[in-house]
Every structure is written in C-alpha cells, then in structure tokens.
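Check out one such.
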Amino acid sequence: MTGWEAAHTLPGQPPLMLDFARIWQAAEKVVYSRSLAAVSTARTRLERSFDPEAVRELKACAERDMTVGGATLAAEAIRAGLVDEYHLVVSPVLVGGGKRALPTDARLPLELTGHRGFGNGVVHLRYRESTTW
C-alpha cells in the first residue's frame, strides 16, 4: 500500500486516483502483522495480533467509517461481529484458487442494500446484516 503515499506525485493520475490517495494519506491506519518488522507509511501503526476488543473501542470512537482490508483480517473481524456493511466487488474473471472473500465458518443473514453495475461487467454489491434469517 506504500504506493498511495506518493501517488499524487506521479504524472497523469486521474482525479479518482488522486482522491483515493488523498483519503488514504489522511487516514489513521493499523497494520496487523506477525512478520513485518516495521511500517513505512505515515499515520500507520503496527500491531502484532488482532484484538477484537481494541478494535471495538477504535470503532466506538471513530468519527468516520472504518475499512478492513485483506481476507484473513476481514474473516477475524466478521467472526468478532465487528463488520456492519459488506462491500463486494465482483469481476467477471475466473482465476480459480486463492483466499476466500468470506470465512467459511461464519453464517450471517445478509440483506442487499445496494448494487451498481459497470460497463466492463464488474458489479459492486453492498450488504448489511439482516434482522431476519
């Protein structure tokens, strides 16, 4: 993710990329890693293990939405009941293998709250936990 640190300095970046780079640079970030020696981006701290209660406290104090990146970390957050919305971007490409987008041991009733299709076949789906099964 260090590429976003300098994205605004690269020539010819489209406005959307520049907007995302600005948002990413301004965000407080937490990296969970047992193997990374240090972080190399501004406004970033390193945590060795995922602590659901610490994240719950961060979430309670957050003034903005929080995001989770990475299938392994997202699975832990889902299992801990920390995820309010699910945004899935489905691309019309079959590659086979890799990590699952959602954990296999979590069962949640989800309700579709929004969707958007793009000209290239990509679909953005937004879900939240449903109150009914």
